[in-house]
Amino acid sequence: MTVTDRERISQATRTVANWIAESSDHCDRLLTTNDRGERPIVVALEDELFSAVAHRISWTDGPYANLFVLMNDESILAGSFMPSASALDDSAKHEFDTEFHRDVRMGEIVRASAARDDAVAIRVTLGETSADFASMRDLAEAR
Exposed/middle/buried for 96, CB within 10 Å: 0-12, 13-18, 19+? Predict the structure, then answer.
């Protein structure tokens, strides 16, 4: 039986929820808050397009989210998502390759982020949407 993308997201969401419930320290690692002081969580798949994930994140009353990306190898990477306009300091930003004006997959963003220094965020721009992704970390390493 083939597992659907929705089922994969549901399973990854349960894994993330269990990880958060394990310790208050894990909850403290959710650094991104929305305008109401909540810490929204969004789970995405490696092959999902940035535009689809950005649309889901827009439901979080933000667009701010603690983003968890389920990679094809079943690892889960975590990071922060916030609008570029909220950045206090643009000196440590890296503009992701958008010269082709195409939608990018979340895996491309994760791999680009992992290749950067911890202090560097990845800025992705697609049309009118611009977002910063803080460096990703493996959920297993965050324990």
Answer: buried
Using DSSP, state whether 76 is helix, strand or coil.
strand
Q: How many CA atoms lie within 13 A of 121 on its CB side?
A: 22
Is residue 39 packed enough to be buried (19+ CB in 10 Å), middle (13-18) or exposed (0-12)? middle
The DSSP bridge partners found for residue 125 are: 130
pTM score? 0.77
Q: How far is CA 130 from the centre of its chain?
A: 13
Per-residue pLDDT of the chain (143 residues; tens, 9 = 90+): 789 999 999 999 999 999 888 888 878 777 778 888 888 889 999 999 988 888 888 887 767 888 888 989 888 888 777 766 655 444 444 455 444 346 788 888 777 776 665 555 666 665 665 666 665 555 555 44
Alpha helices in the chain (DSSP H): 5-22, 24-28, 50-57, 106-114
